[in-house]
Specification:
- With about 625 residues, the chain is of the alpha/beta class.
- Helices cover about 40% and strands about 10% of the residues.
- It has three domains: about 110 residues, no CATH class; about 80 residues, no CATH class; about 325 residues, Rossmann fold, CATH 3.40.50.300.
- The longest helix is centred in the N-terminal third of the chain and has 66 residues.
- The chain is elongated and about 155 Å long.
- Keywords: Membrane, Transmembrane, Transmembrane helix.
- This is Double-GTPase 2 domain-containing protein.
- Pfam families: DO-GTPase2 (PF19993).
Amino acid sequence: MSNTKEQEPSLTSYFYGPGFVDIVRVITTTKANIGRSIEDITTKAASKPTSNSLIILVPQVILRYIYWLFSAGSMVIASAFICLAMLLPHVIGFVLIDIIGIVLSQIARLFDLLYFQIRKVSNVCDTCHNRFALPVYVCDQCGAKHLALMPGKYGILHHTCTCGQKLACSVLDRKHPRRDLQALCPFCYKAGREESVLSSNSRAICIPVVGGASAGKSAFITAYAQSVIDDRAPKNGLHVRFYDDDRERMYQSMTAAYRSGVVEKTATVTEQGRSSTISFSFFLEGDGLVPSRLMQILDIAGETFTNNDENEEQNQYEHCEGIVLVIDPLSIRDFAAKCKDSLDPGDSGSISNAPLEDVRSALHIKLQNVSDTDRNGRIRTPLAVVINKIDSTPLLEERIGSKAVNAVMAADPETFTDPANTTDFLCRQFLMDYDMGDVVAHIEQDFATSRFFAVSSIGHTAGNGKGFEPYNVTDVVDWILDIQDPALGKALGARTYAKADLPVKEPVYGLFDQILENARVQAEVQTQTASQPQAAPSQATSQPMPTPVQSSSATTGVPEQPTAATPTPSAWGSSFAQEQTASEPQSEPVSQPQPARPVEPVGSSPENPTQPETPPAKPKRPVSPLAPRRPQPRKRH
């Protein structure tokens, strides 16, 4: 546990050092033996002459020198042949074996890296929120910390600890997999802490749920966890395993809250040694789900999020699969003023006090320096914007709920063909109509992929004695899985989404009411057209009769002179044709058609059968209570 670079507690592989040392030792030993042999010959050749006579001494010295020269030369030549004949093949054979060993270790290492990359195997620390592929493994024999338990210089499939224990170092070893060893977060270990991670050899799906205080984040997480763990996973043959005992106890609390309909507010963590973010983590395992998935849903207190008061650096935004931004629509001042009379006292007392602009700004600050961006500078991480609590007032159901979706799709079926895309448009339009257009514009500018959802996490006012009845909660995470992990979405039976550029129609102030009004007018025109009687063929060329108009005096019984009404366009065409025919010279007399007998108007009184009753004036359409009032310009001080 040190900040300095540590020596790996594994013995170096024979192919990465000891083998070369053996070769050098063999060459050195052979060289030393040859040197000793030459030295022995030299010693014998330099022995003291046995005679003092020059006649005998000189030839004896010459003969000894020739003997020494011949013996030493023979020894060198023989040693060279011995090295070539015996040592060289040994060296060549070892070098080939060593090269093969090194290549195999690199192939195993590459296989592991590709396995991590293709399977997207990773680990996430619950304390520092960093993501990493290789944790620090602890020897189960002596407790030594292995920082690089991978194929390489310390072994191909196994590392040998300094205590002699063999530790698996590759996914190819399935008999004693390294995931069975205790694992530590490498980032925390380098910082002087030992934080265990339990997600070894799994794929982590990290989804932070953010928003202001009392926006409904905890209720959203509770509703989703219950749906997946109790319903969708068992129904699709998946096994659920909790990350640890703490998460299992957390789920038991969620279950009690789900049944009672009361969710406790996420507590603000003030202790500096504790993480500000609470993670609810569980594994999903199944035959068709390889590797297993670690679902990690992160929650942070709204006050901490908006005030940037976290105790630790929030590294989860750098690698998360998607972000869920929960919005309380009642926190929008203009909308809250419109629906305050229709709110339940329980809903009125749980309105988020965090302005939506501050929540969006806080999210932008946390992401701007850590997230991956495209060439246009937009964040690649998908953002799901959740307008929560749509059960709190009927106005929300009529603006962004299923009722509004059906009405808009019926009003413009060519544009709005998909309910999910229609909901996205309605949510953006809702924010636009209630002076939150800047928030929508910033989200579209900051994120490459975003979608809006209308959700009710609880389904009713919290604390009214009923359990959860969530609406559209699972659709939010399904959309993130559809983008980031389709295999998991398929295994869970999740909903898929049509690929389309959102929004399908650009929101403009007042567009919602305009769409419905246009549809109403068009329906009335079609109804009037269908109800008009068709003229008989024999009357097509007849002279139209003036339509009498009843004056206000008709109601008093005072007779009045009939006034000719303006002919209809069809009557104009008939009159014009008859005038043209009358002005042309006739070669033979043509009989003029008799004027058609006027049809007695429906509803005419018996006292005055020739004058129809004036149709009543069309009542003025009342203004919809949902139609937002255009804000008046504010005075600058």
